[in-house]
Write a structure and sequence with these properties.
The protein is mainly α. The chain is built from twelve helices and three strands; from the N terminus they run αααβββααααααααα.
Length: 383
């Protein structure tokens, strides 16, 4: 099994697990609110079908040509982020969705992937030409503007990803240590400002240290999540038998889907899913190393940070290591736009791997000729 086949298998396994978990975690809420226990499952399956089409297109489309579409992608994304602020659907006081018929999509999810593509395009040219990498560049400033629009929805967790992943890509690309230090300091200051701008965020930070002190307040989700995970034990309560989804755990099929999965399937299943994400990170790294040019390398790294980074943040949030930030678990949490964009990202990753393999095969005859010529030269010297 090569790297691309392994990535595809991992994605399919995560989607299967996620589909089962979405139904198990949502059928109670769906029955109570929509009189249809399959309400969320049907929409999830539709998203999988759309995602599969997008995945196949991304896997076959030459990823090098994405650089040509960067200006269009930036304009479209910024326009969509502005539109959602002006005419978006408001849910729980936040405008994050634009309605299209019976479905909705989140421009902020698109912003994650677009910020990665445009950053990879900028950094790739710097790497290929062996030029220094400045942080204050037009591409990063546009990513920050996108993140600012997402923050106004408000959605701080996603905003941090839209700006944070490009920032980490600058680090990976080899930005100077002093700029890294300045950036970390500036990010810490900015994070403090963003937290204090909204009082509920400060309350979440306070409850993060001791959620049981506010078990009926801002620590409620964390306490219920930890209780669900703990009650699952080693083997779990059994599929569909978890009790936390019975209105105890808010967002049981979205941000806290993994808590329900842990309760129903137990420790071994949790370790299996964790292992899938670790394996995905390893294969992403292998594909990035084999990519023939800077754009492919940085794009593969960005996709790894997008999927595995979100998984790490969500898992840390669910077990209480991080405060509640509203970041879904890729392929496991319910969310159509997120699922489709993650499947598209895997398609791009497989595309990078295919071109890397083709480049390796093309180079092999030349390398073999070099070895043969070297051996002949050594034999001639011995004679």
């Amino acid at each position: 099994m090569n790297d691309m086949e392994a990535v595809l298998v991992i994605m399919v396994l995560l989607i299967i697990i996620g589909t089962i978990n979405v139904f198990s975690a949502s059928f109670i809420t769906a029955e109570m609110n929509f009189n249809n226990p399959y309400f969320f499952l049907v929409r999830h399956l539709i998203s999988i079908v759309v995602g599969a089409v997008v995945f196949l297109c991304a896997a076959k489309f030459d990823y090098h040509k994405l650089r040509v579409f960067v200006p269009f992608l930036m304009v479209f994304t910024i326009g969509a982020l502005i539109l959602v602020l002006m005419a978006g659907t408001s849910v729980n006081g936040a405008k994050r969705w634009i309605g299209i018929g019976f479905m909705q999509f989140q421009p902020s999810e698109i912003a994650k992937l677009v910020s990665i593509i445009m950053t990879a395009s900028f950094l790739g040219s710097k790497i290929d030409n062996h030029k220094a990498i400045p942080l204050l560049n037009r591409t990063f400033i546009i990513a920050v503007l996108m993140a600012t629009a997402v923050e106004l929805e408000p959605d701080m967790g996603t905003a941090l990803l839209v700006a944070g992943i490009p920032l980490l890509m600058h680090f990976i690309a080899g930005m100077k240590i002093k700029w890294i230090a300045y950036t970390v300091l500036a990010a810490a200051v900015l994070f403090g400002i963003l937290v204090t701008l909204q009082s509920y965020r400060l309350d979440r930070i306070k409850s993060w240290y001791d959620p049981w002190s506010q078990a009926q307040g801002f620590g409620y989700q964390t306490v219920q999540s930890l209780s669900a995970i703990g009650s699952g034990g080693v083997f779990g309560m059994g599929l569909g038998r978890g009790v936390s989804k019975y209105s105890y755990l808010p967002e049981a099929h979205t941000d806290f889907a993994f808590a329900v999965f842990s309760q129903e399937n137990g420790l071994f299943a949790v370790l299996f899913v964790f292992g899938l994400y670790v394996a995905l990170a390893a294969y992403c790294g292998k594909i990035a190393r084999r990519a023939g040019e800077g754009f492919g390398k940085m794009l593969a790294c960005g996709i790894m940070l997008l999927i595995v980074g979100q998984a790490a943040v969500n898992l840390y949030m669910v077990i209480g290591i991080l405060p509640v930030v509203g970041v879904p678990l890729p392929f496991i949490s319910y969310g159509g736009t997120s699922l489709i964009l993650n499947m598209a990202s895997i398609g791009v990753l497989i595309n990078i791997g295919r071109y890397a393999n083709a480049e390796t095969k093309r180079r092999r005859p030349d390398e073999q000729n070099i070895v043969i010529k070297t051996e002949r030269r050594n034999l001639y010297r011995l004679k």
